[in-house]
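Re: beginner question about structure tokens

> Can someone show what the tokenized structure looks like for a real chain? I only ever see the sequence side.

Sure, here's an example I had lying around. Input first:
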Amino acid sequence: MSSSSSLLTQRRNLLLALLALPLTGLAAPIPDGLQRWGRGTFRRFGFLVYEATLWAGDDPLRPPLALRLDYKRSIAGKDIAEASIKEMRKRVTDAAQLQAWGEQMLRIFPDVSEGDHLLGVWQADGARFVQGERTLGTVGDPAFARAFFGIWLDEKTSAPELRAALLQKPAT
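And the corresponding structure tokens:
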């Protein structure tokens, strides 16, 4: 066998091996039965913070649904948790409950960098958070899930333009 055909065989085998690798970590898995609804951006002080995309069934305001945030800036997980509690406080008045939820989110939310994404999945029994194909954590409380996803989907959201964009019915 000539050295050129041996090199060609090695390249082909390498290519086949690479194609056989699972594509892990590239995209957060969207639960079965959900379709892509709308997409919008969130800006703070004029700076693009993230792009959000909603997946839902027939009713985008009821579980199950999934919300993916694609970050355009680096943000500490602690800051994500604190901002979430600040927004949830507009709809939840139980301070002890908010503190408990905040502690759970501090354990779940990682620091993110530009290009990272997080996926939140609202299920009937609570919420699950995923990065890539890795589950970051769950909060098994339907009230938490309703309050958390209300940050984007509640009529009283602080980002009504983003809510309107997310609730755009998909083309059929």
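Each token stands for a local structural state, so reading them left to right follows the chain. Residues 27-166 form a domain with the Chalcone isomerase fold (CATH 3.50.70.10).
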